């Protein structure tokens, strides 16, 4: 039976999560494929709805407040510093020696098939020496358990709530300055160990994290975030453990599949009915191909082109879907964790329910039809004159961005999230000296911001000043314009496109 050790801090423990953080939804993703797999560890705190039997799935190694060094010390030793400082059963290392056992713990050594490790959030305030700490931890795990597959995560976003009037969602607050450097470090370390022949893999829990996926403290996921994390862990595990032989229809890395005109690829006859399009694999549907499976997963770098029909539920994690002049029809449920639209020029028809946890960017070049219900937990961005209509309900739990789109809201919209419209583009601060005009504005991802100047306020009199800047949700952009004699009496504005 496959043994998986979830290893980390309070996020692995599942703080504030209804169903054991990401562990609960990950169990429901893995169980249909490997019913004899089990989570292992020394802790059973925060079990959620995980079953206690016949295989007890409540075990894990997630400990609140733990940093890289705390975990390093407890793999083959004992360190209860966090427990003594803060208390709480979730900080108890349970005697430590998590991998080697013995030493008075009464536990035998454990040999996980996989370790899912997300650590570093509690190191953000102590960036000095974080590189060696991360390196030493990975080195210790791969030395103690060289046959274990270690999946190391880029950490989820951590935002800094302001002292007063925190934004809603909290992801509009500034990002902690140590997050991106740490995630770059994770990617570099994983690459180094892989080049050395170690069984180390990377999972990105930062990119495309749901904008409504954090609780107001800015650092811990809510269930929207945990559910998204579970899908990323699942894809990483599937990529690391691709079953061999005909027992699985999983496509190996860099596989290209072409369905000829009118052809049908039906994989429901296999033992598992999951199609995983991994790594750089591509699927060409031809002119009218048909793909049937109970579950179809398109991973981050998998691509689908041509025209055809998908029968079965689809989980999409790729940054694009479809190709110019192609038409793809989806007759089952569809979950998007990647990007749809973005002027790909394809026609997408969804006849089942759609859940968007990623980005749905609809412009005038996109032809996307929703005949079923649409639930948005991520970002939907409408630009130009694009209208969004659904055949069923339209529930927004995330961000609906109509800053440069139609300002009228869909009639069937039920809004529980955030709506950004043209009124959210405004000058945050301004300053004028003899030589320079400085303007700043809060920006939002998916838009470019350009400082413009006019001396008459006529529509055709505005000219660009300097270069455009790319927006990032929650980031303050600053623009500078030199003042010469000709521009002393000028008007300034910040234009947004698209």
Question: What tags apply to this protein structure?
Answer:
alpha/beta, Immunoglobulin-like, 498 residues, 6-stranded parallel sheet
Your description of this structure?
Strands 8, 9, 11, 13, 14, 15, 17, 18, 20, 21, 23 and 25 form a twelve-stranded parallel sheet that branches. β27 and β28 form a beta hairpin. The protein has seven helices and 33 strands. α2 packs across α7, α3 runs parallel beside α5 and α5 packs parallel to α6. The N and C termini lie far apart (52 Å). The radius of gyration is 25 Å and the shape is globular. The longest helix is centred in the middle third of the chain and has 18 residues.
Please outline what is shown here.
With 498 residues, this protein is α/β, with parallel strands linked by helices. It contains 7 helices and 33 strands.
Helix content: 10-25%
Q: Which regions have little confidence, pLDDT < 50, spanning 5+ residues?
A: 243-248
Quote the average pLDDT.
89
Q: Could you say what the CATH topology of the largest domain is called? A: Rossmann fold
Number of structurally distinct domains: 3
Q: Which term fits the overall shape? A: globular
Derived structural class: alpha/beta
**Approximately how much beta-strand content do the residues carry?**
25-35%
CATH superfamily of the largest domain: SGNH hydrolase
Compute the separation of the termini in Å: 52 Å
CATH class of the largest domain: Alpha Beta
- CATH architecture designation of the largest domain: 3-Layer(aba) Sandwich
Mind describing the biggest β-sheet?
Answer: 12 strands, parallel
User: What's the gyration radius in Å?
Assistant: 25 Å
Total DSSP E strands: 33
Number of distinct helices:
7
């Amino acid at each position: 039976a496959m043994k998986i050790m979830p290893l980390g801090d309070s996020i692995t423990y599942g703080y504030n999560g209804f169903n054991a953080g990401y562990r609960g939804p990950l169990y429901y993703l893995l169980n249909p494929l490997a019913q004899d797999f089990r989570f292992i560890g020394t802790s059973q705190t925060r079990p959620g709805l995980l079953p206690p039997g016949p295989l007890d799935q409540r075990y894990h190694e997630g400990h609140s407040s733990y940093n890289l060094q705390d975990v390093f010390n407890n793999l083959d030793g004992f360190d209860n510093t966090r427990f003594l400082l803060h208390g709480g059963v979730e900080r108890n290392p349970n005697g430590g020696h998590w991998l080697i056992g013995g030493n008075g713990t009464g536990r035998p050594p454990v040999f996980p098939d996989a370790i899912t490790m997300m650590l570093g959030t509690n190191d953000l305030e102590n960036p000095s020496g974080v590189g060696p700490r991360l390196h030493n931890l990975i080195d210790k795990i791969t030395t103690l358990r060289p046959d274990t597959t270690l999946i190391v995560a880029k950490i989820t976003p951590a935002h800094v709530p302001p002292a007063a009037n925190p934004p809603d969602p909290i992801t509009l607050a500034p990002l902690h300055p140590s997050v991106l450097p740490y995630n770059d470090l994770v990617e570099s370390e994983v690459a180094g160990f892989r080049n050395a022949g170690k069984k180390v893999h990377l999972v990105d829990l930062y990119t495309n994290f749901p904008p409504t996926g954090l609780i107001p403290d800015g650092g811990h996921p809510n269930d929207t975030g945990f559910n998204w994390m579970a899908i990323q862990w699942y894809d990483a595990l599937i990529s690391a453990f691709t079953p061999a032989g005909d027992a699985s229809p999983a496509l190996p890395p860099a596989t290209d599949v072409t369905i000829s005109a009118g052809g049908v690829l039906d994989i429901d006859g296999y033992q598992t009915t999951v199609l995983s399009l991994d790594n750089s694999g591509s699927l060409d549907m031809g002119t009218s191909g048909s793909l049937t499976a109970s579950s179809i997963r398109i991973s981050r770098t998998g691509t689908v082109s041509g025209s055809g029909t998908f029968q079965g539920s689809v989980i999409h994690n790729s940054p694009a879907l479809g190709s110019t002049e192609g038409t793809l029809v989806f007759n089952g449920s569809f979950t998007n964790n990647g990007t749809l639209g973005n002027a790909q020029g394809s026609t997408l028809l969804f006849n089942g329910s759609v859940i968007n946890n990623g980005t749905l960017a609809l412009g005038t070049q996109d032809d996307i039809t929703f005949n079923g219900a649409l639930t948005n937990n991520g970002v939907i961005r409408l630009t130009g004159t694009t209208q969004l209509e659904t055949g069923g309900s339209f529930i927004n739990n995330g961000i609906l961005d109509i800053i440069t789109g139609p300002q009228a809201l869909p009639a069937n919209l039920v809004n529980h999230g955030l709506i950004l419209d043209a009124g959210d583009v405004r000058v945050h601060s301004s300053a004028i000296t003899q030589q320079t005009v400085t303007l700043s504005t809060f920006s939002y991802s998916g838009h470019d911001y350009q400082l413009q100047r006019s001396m008459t306020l006529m529509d055709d009199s505005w000219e660009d000043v300097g270069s455009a800047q790319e927006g990032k949700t929650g980031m303050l952009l600053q623009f500078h314009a030199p003042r010469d004699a000709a521009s002393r009496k000028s008007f300034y504005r910040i234009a947004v496109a698209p």
